[in-house]
């Protein structure tokens, strides 16, 4: 995160779990970027968020902070099995999944929540060994996630938090059917905290949010206005029939 894109809003201003705040500050994260300042009040209130934000805006830490806080603040479901992660973070590429995992490691070390990583190409047995010991947060690409799910190495019936990162690229790479397959194996949207981030909130991305999220709030940070003042307006589209909040900083 570039310090030139920080707001006056501090992570410690929010009612975040103390372990999360401590982990952030240990890594030097004190002030929020615009997308974090806009998304966190919603996710901390249990609201689903669909955010338009480019790479480098701090969106990864926005959804990681929300995910760790939620899992620390809510108990796992009763009778959760060892092969049932509590949170699923889906990324379009192996490289992005690995980067998200690296960004999540300091939070995992501080909180005791266990991370798992699943991506195609290599590392199958190594990834599986971690999953077999049980993970709280699973980060991965859709193809490998489906592979593990079909073999019952993972079961998505206990998912409490879902993140879909770079949703527009998921469409571009042809992964949308995989995404829907995975969503069908999870509890209903109203029983999860759902977050979606995309470089663009196109019609098809909004349609996906409509299908898989629970009355999501929309937040937007324009690439050229990462530090501009906030502007909010509400409206309903014929398709969504939902309140959309556009915020620019």
UniProtKB/TrEMBL annotation:
Q: Name one GO cellular component term.
A: cytosol
Q: What is its EC number?
A: 3.6.4.13
Q: Which GO terms describe its molecular function?
A: ATP binding; hydrolase activity; RNA binding; RNA helicase activity
Q: Which InterPro entries match?
A: DEAD/DEAH_box_helicase_dom, DEAD/DEAH_RhlB, DEAD_box_RNA_helicase, Helicase_ATP-bd, P-loop_NTPase, RNA-helicase_DEAD-box_CS, RNA_helicase_DEAD_Q_motif
Which top EC class is given?
hydrolase
Q: Which residues form a coiled coil?
A: none
Domain of life, source organism? Bacteria
Q: Which ranges carry the DEAD-box RNA helicase Q domain? A: 9-37
Concerning Gene3D superfamilies, the annotation shows: P-loop containing nucleotide triphosphate hydrolases
Ranges where the Helicase ATP-binding domain occurs: 40-219
Supply the alphabetized keyword list: ATP-binding, Cytoplasm, Helicase, Hydrolase, Nucleotide-binding, RNA-binding
Query: What Pfam families does this protein map onto?
Result: DEAD (PF00270)
Q: Where is this motif: Q motif?
A: 9-37
Question: What is the recorded name of this protein?
Answer: ATP-dependent RNA helicase
Biological source species: Salmonella enterica I
